[in-house]
Batch of 4 targets.
Target 1
Amino acid sequence: MSPLSSTVKGEAPSVSFEFFPPKTETMANRLWDTVERLQPMAPDFVSVTYGAGGSTRERTHDTVRRIAQETSLSPAGHLTCVGATKEEVLSVAEDYWDAGVKHIVALRGDPPAGMGEKFEQYPGGFRDSIDLIQGIREHRPELGRCFEISVSCYPELHPESQGWDAEIAFLKAKQDAGADRAITQFFFEPQVYLNFLEKARAGGVTMPIVPGIMLQPNFKGLKRIAALCGSSLPDWLHELYEGLDEDEETRELVTANVAADLCRQLSDEGVSNFHFYTLNRAGLALSTCRLLGLKPNSAKAA
Ligand code: FAD
């Protein structure tokens, strides 16, 4: 097998990376090391997730602003409707704009731990992700109109979904409210994404739907998150990680190969953009990109 036959076909794919805001100085050092090492991959954008509590939020804002100010990357700040009034959420968007952050991932979000299972609209807050997108678009039109807005979508349905028709209609409504791109929840079977794409296109969703690729080498952790968000873990994945609980090094190699293989199969179907849930781990994201044939700055060159 020639070395190139293991990479994706045609042009190098476009990638984006998701980070979470660091809680400690050690985690912050690791994130900045990750940012520096991934920067040469010339991602389309990098995004930073948003938590429910005040201090997590400050860490998200600081991280997003720092990426804008100290790197050549295009950062996107995640924003949710949880626990804040419309004015508070929109003032974060304004601060982002002033700091050079022109991209928002607009989400409804989940209630903070211990605050019940169901999302409740905060008094004076946004009702749902559509209300949030509209709020951003209408806020100071010279600024709101210019933001790039990404949203979430769920190829295996969101746990609160009322079925496929409602799910696709809801995604279309996000597009109609002003969303530019949807990023999927993670999945492991290419057909899951392809079936979803077909349903979304048939339902009038024309915006790019970028597959979200999970890079979680801790299989126990992955099982926990998957159970919460409704992503299925195929039997072959359980088998691949079986007996590796104490062997982190091998789990990482398996994780990068599983992710790259998924991307290659999607690429064969014409997919050329991938969003990686990096969990702030440079090595895994880098090795996955390498397995896809992406080299420093090759995405930009392509
Ligand atoms: P929405 O897409 O607005 O709604 C979730 C689902 O509820 C819909 O898919 C649909 O099934 C149903 N629904 C809601 N309203 C209606 C309606 N009117 N009609 C029909 N169906 C409806 N969480 C965080 O806290 N911080 C983050 O930074 C974060 N980043 C994320 C990034 C991505 C790419 C993804 C996929 C998820 C992220 N999440 C994040 C998780 C997300 O907050 C949860 O999944 C949450 O439960 C839903 O938020 P949402 O914006 O996806 O919701």
Target 2
Amino acid sequence: MELQPREIKQWLLQANQLFQENKDYLTSLDQAIGDGDHGINMARGFQEVKNKIEPTEYTNVSDVLKDTAMTLMSKVGGASGPLFGTAFLKLSTSLKGADNADFQHFAEGISAAGEGLKQRGKAEQGEKTMIDVWLPMAEFLKSQNEFSGDEIESKAKSAMEATKDMSAKKGRAAYLGDRSVGHLDPGSVSSYYLFSTLAEIVKK
Ligand code: ADP
Ligand code: MG
Ligand code: MG
């Protein structure tokens, strides 16, 4: 299976819908261990992504992802804008040169995104950040040879849930240290939304 530009677009537009619907929930997660703006950041950023990509005709997947990356970097304040921007930019770069994304290249792109996040955030796995969803997902995809929506969904969900027991070492939640244990990491929940909508797209 290959993802065409219009399917990548659909993925991002559906993700936007989830960010709008769950804006208050994401904000409440960030109120518990951060500064309470994560829902606002994601909803604003993805609304801008929608405004940019919806009216644009794309002939290759790389360009949709690049516009998404640039929009998130420039429109989202806080840590998450540059981080999600970096992830989408790495994915875009990995997929450069082909019109559509085949599984192999997509999987490599998610790995590159995970590595980009580590570098940009100076974070490791287990430090209660969005990296704790992206890296396990990259590992999982590398072990596969085709898109499997159900498995992508369940992998992303368990990775997101695992952040609850972690003690934050990076980002604002790190100020709380062990008091962050028992709370989900907001950026990991947003990352779950991205992979959960991807799962829906590949199931169609
Ligand atoms: P801010 O913390 O600047 O208010 P957001 O609330 O939008 O930005 O995003 C917070 C999320 O960003 C966290 O839940 C975490 O997943 C992610 N994050 C924060 N710092 C880092 C980092 N250094 N590396 C990776 N992810 C990070
Ligand atoms: Mg915040
Ligand atoms: Mg903030």
Target 3
Amino acid sequence: MIKFKNLFFILILFSACKDKAENQEPNQVHPNIVLIYADDLGYGDLSAYGGEISTPNIDKLAENGLKHTNAYATSSICTPSRFSMLTGEYSWRQIGSGVAAGNDGALIKPGTTTLQGVLQNAGYSTAIVGKWHLGLGNENGPDWNGKITPGPLEVGFDYAFMIPATGDRVPTVFVENHQIVNLDPEDPIKVSYKEKLGDNPTGKENPELLKMDYSHGHNQSIVNGISRIGYQTGGESALWKDEDFADIFVEKSAEFMEDNSSSPFFLFFSAHDIHVPRAPHQRFVGKSGKGLRGDAILQLDWTVGAIVKKLEDLGVRENTLIIVSSDNGPVTDDGYKDMSDEFLGNHKPAGNLSGGKYSVLEAGTKIPLIVNWPGVVRPNTVSEALISQVDFLRSFASLTGIEVAIKNAPDSFDLHKALLGEHLRGRESLVQMGTSNGFSFIKNNYKYIVPNNASPEITWGPDVKTGFSQEDQLFNLKIDPTESNNIAKQKPDILDSLKKEYKRIRDS
Ligand code: NG6
Ligand code: CA
């Protein structure tokens, strides 16, 4: 493996590598890649992006690297964002706009071209550690007590240690590769999203057992004093403790990096933070002064610092490309009474954007994106190039010299130069998706929000503006980043051209 010391050198190598790739030969541009993907972290949540909660470890990556200010997840909820990022295909083409249930079957079918599969083909060892939330098992869902397959290992990962769905959904156990960790065969686990199982307490019936009360949903099985979505019984020896997530994920990642430090590796570190339930380790509780949501941000920052330290200890930091981003925008109360609104103070999770998780407004999908690669990505740079996480697949393929057939990863563009800050030419346009099948389309700094019958406010819980309207909406993001002034009637030509272009992409 070669360590690159400057941009000029890498540019020469890129052209050399391209020729080799066309001849199907391996090239030499194989940095380790660590993709740290936070959950529900907003555009304004990091101090590098103006947040009030100090995130020194993440900020250091931005200071010594590139901060993107016009980068997007494809959706304002988790499952579709992750699907698009890992497959290079807008999720609405395949799986729609919903959040996967905890017992859904695998949503990425074996044989699909994936980001991790591309890197595997380029000779990388690949791992996911953390939240999966893309379904496991066949269409009837996984056999939790047996071999859990298909899953990440069937779509390009060599190693997986994961929360199968989310921290707030059953089963509340870790799955390592094909099996639940520490499961006692004498005490099998049962999972249902339809009916209560056995006599285990639920949040609804036994609120006195809760250490964190729920505000909406989340009133079914209680595990570790927190009630969840869904019912489960059994599997006592395998149940997780939420407070240990960060430590365990760092430990598993460290083991993976250590085992693979002599060859290139790709680590998809898919953090639980700062999703609900927010139950960070005791050492972070009360430390942010901004409540548990702020404390979870501190825990995320600690996690990033611990991963960077491990890379340094292994002597591979110089040759590692680190990316920090988030799967969707922020939300405060997302179903638990964790006082996240009450403690916010001047901290603005969405920065100056409107909306948040679930919405089609900018805060739903515009996310932090930090890219750091010593000696290659210039320190202290900011990029306004329009870029989407769906572009990671072709960008990394190009970087590592792997060709991806045109029919695969159809929505992904090779933007590795924009991603690394070599120039500002990003994608031309972008389709965004919110909850309730809500869509919007961005081109040339104009944003068209497609008419939708759903409510302008979320009606079932979180206090979030969705951005939905039955009318056409058009905003000039350059002068109106808060999407306050609908200019659809003043700019009929622009509206018409965005509508046509959006329709062409949706129908393609
Ligand atoms: C919602 C949950 C929310 C969160 C979300 C998925 C309720 C009332 N709300 O249905 O708490 O789990 O799904 O979040 O149940 S995501 O980041 O994984 O998309
Ligand atoms: Ca999320």
Target 4
Amino acid sequence: MPEQTREPSLVLVGLMGAGKSTVGRRLAQRLSRRFVDADDEIERAAGMSIPEIFERFGEAHFRDGERRVLARLLDQDGIIIATGGGAFMHPETRRMIRDRARSIWLKADLDTLVRRCARRADRPLLKGSSARETLGRLMEERYPVYAEADFTVESGGDAHDLVVDRIMQVI
Ligand code: S3P
């Protein structure tokens, strides 16, 4: 029997507004691989939107579902996965991603994140607060952890296709 080549899945991590979903979709097209948005999968599995999950069951419940959905996705090789910004922060989820796939941190500056997040009003963590303040705090908390990803690619300001080019160069 011919030996099967196993391409590891690629997992995009980074803050809200870093471009994970858009870049992931385009990267998948370039590589002719399947793209999966983990947030969409969580919504499908729960039968409700992420804001609704946060509101009805709280963040801890959401994180648990996120971990289970990612565990299932990571059983597949060769796909491109965009994660929600908090997924890589959770030790067990992070360990799973690091063990079973290649991770890419899309690193963006605060102005870019604020500008992009202003286009979507449905992010529970940004509700009722200054997005700039919250994103600034999350950058401090999360950037040292995102830095544990296998690759770091600058994703601030630039067109998403350039970010895809950069990823193609490092993987
Ligand atoms: C979150 C990011 C969101 C979503 C949820 C929590 C976070 O995904 O998973 O609102 O903790 O940063 P995006 O990064 O795709 O916006």
